[in-house]
């Protein structure tokens, strides 16, 4: 079982791939076969999950590592010989809410959205404050929202919201609410936002914890 660690004991690795739609299945296969396979024996590896975008042109991996992890210790993946390297960031959880006891990442039909906020590092602390407050409002006003977890990038330039939804209709409903629509979003003046929708297609945990 892959769970998002809400106690900040794990470092999160986020690898964002862009790919031509016709190559998305091959990229997913290569990431699972080559990249994640090479991570399993790393002493600080905890878990990884692979997500495919519904529009067919994106893939991302969400991985968890022991806090002593240094990305430079990872071997170069042969995936990069076939596809463009991903944009890779290290994150930590700043706030999380869930309708169940744990935030579980599992392969299946649930809809995942990944919202990316780009900002100047000086604005990240205020974004953390705002997103923590908006998290409560989102969960209380959106019954189809199963969990939402905000992460900050360690370089100060990003925040990400990893959300899980019962359906696409439930997700689209929140976009009509004040503060979440494009007219006056809660991040206005601090960050630029974009989001994409995904399904989880593979999960992997440390086989020797």
Structural write-up:
This protein is an alpha+beta fold and 209 residues long. It has one domain (2-205): 2-Layer Sandwich (Alpha-Beta Plaits), CATH 3.30.70.100. 20% of the residues lie in helices and 38% in strands. It has three helices and ten strands. The chain has helices spanning 24-39, 124-141, 168-174; strands at residues 2-3, 11-18, 45-53, 58-65, 87-98, 104-105, 111-118, 145-153, 158-165, 192-205. The chain has an eight-stranded antiparallel barrel. Strands 1-6 form a two-stranded antiparallel sheet. A hairpin with a 4-residue loop joins strand 8 and strand 9 (158-165). The longest helix is centred in the middle third of the chain and has 18 residues, at 124-141. It starts with a strand and ends with a strand.
Unreliable residue stretches: none
Q: What structural class is derived from the secondary structure elements?
A: alpha+beta
Q: Major sheet: order of its strands?
A: 2-4-3-10-7-9-8-5
Classify the fold: give the CATH topology: Alpha-Beta Plaits
As for the number of domains, it is: 1
Q: What is the correct CATH architecture? A: 2-Layer Sandwich
**What share of residues is helical?**
10-25%
N-C termini distance: 12 Å
Give the integer mean of the pLDDT values. 90
Order of helices and strands: EEHEEEEEHEEHE
| CA-based gyration radius | 17 Å
Can you count the beta strands? 10
- Determine and state the CATH class: Alpha Beta
Supply the number of helical segments: 3
Largest sheet geometry: 8 strands, antiparallel, barrel
Portion in strands: 35-45%
* Gross morphology: globular
């Amino acid at each position: 079982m892959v769970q998002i660690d809400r106690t900040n004991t794990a470092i999160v690795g986020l690898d964002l791939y862009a790919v031509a739609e016709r190559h998305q299945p091959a990229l997913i296969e290569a990431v699972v076969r080559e990249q994640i396979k090479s991570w399993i024996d790393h002493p600080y590896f905890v878990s990884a999950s692979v997500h495919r975008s519904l529009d067919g042109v994106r893939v991302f991996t969400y991985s968890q590592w022991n806090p002593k992890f240094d990305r430079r210790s990872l071997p170069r993946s042969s995936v990069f010989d076939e596809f463009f390297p991903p944009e890779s960031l290290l994150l930590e959880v700043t706030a999380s809410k869930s309708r169940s006891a744990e935030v579980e990442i599992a392969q299946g039909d649930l809809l995942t959205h990944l919202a990316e906020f780009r900002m100047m590092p000086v604005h990240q602390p205020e974004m953390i404050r705002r997103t923590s407050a908006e998290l409560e409002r989102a969960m209380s006003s959106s019954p189809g929202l199963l969990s939402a977890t905000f992460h900050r990038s360690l370089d100060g330039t990003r925040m990400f919201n990893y959300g899980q939804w019962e359906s696409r209709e439930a997700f689209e409903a929140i976009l009509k609410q004040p503060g979440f629509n494009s007219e006056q979003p809660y991040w206005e003046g601090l960050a630029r936002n974009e989001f994409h929708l995904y399904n989880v297609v593979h999960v992997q945990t440390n086989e020797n914890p």
